[in-house]
Amino acid sequence: MKRLLAILLMATALTGCGYNDFQRLDEDTKSKWSEVLNQYQRRADLVPNIVASVKGEANFEQETLTKVIEARSKATSIQATPELINDPAAFDKFQQAQGELSSALSRLMVVAEQYPQLQANQAFRDLRVTLEGTENRITVARNAYIQSVQQYNVLARSFPTNLTGMVFGYKAKPNFTVQNEAEIARPPTVDFGSK
């Protein structure tokens, strides 16, 4: 009878510990992170096509193309594993490399606006639309990851599940941040004056 009571008491105590919730949310964050990586890979695969299209169509600014190629190389050189989301320093390094690639691609598109013959090239237009769609997909995937991490981190920090987290080593996961927070907080200057 005492044994049955002890088992019943232990089972009751474990129902509120949150272990299964940690498992479920940990897998959810890994899944969402895989989708983010999938979209980053899609973008990295598009970059050589964009560069080839631009090179073939215009006497283009070599410095801009070089920066895009270097940023892609840096972004793809970081080993993106599921463990990356558990290492804040590696996560920041990965996020910074992806940000540099985004910035280089943005500069490429702005400079490309100055080349009418490039704009008229159907292949370039198609690649540009595909790249814009990919950037949107990255945004959607990152938002899903951010929400998943939020749920996981709330569980990891809430009582009594935080005790389970401490026992089993479940720590809060890093989330995406804005690299230039102070810069984007400043309102843009709009000037409609003539030059």
From TrEMBL:
It holds the Pfam family LemA. It comes from the Bacteria. PANTHER family: MEMBRANE PROTEIN, PROTEIN LEMA. InterPro entries: MamQ_LemA (IPR007156). It comes from Comamonas jiangduensis. This is LemA family protein.
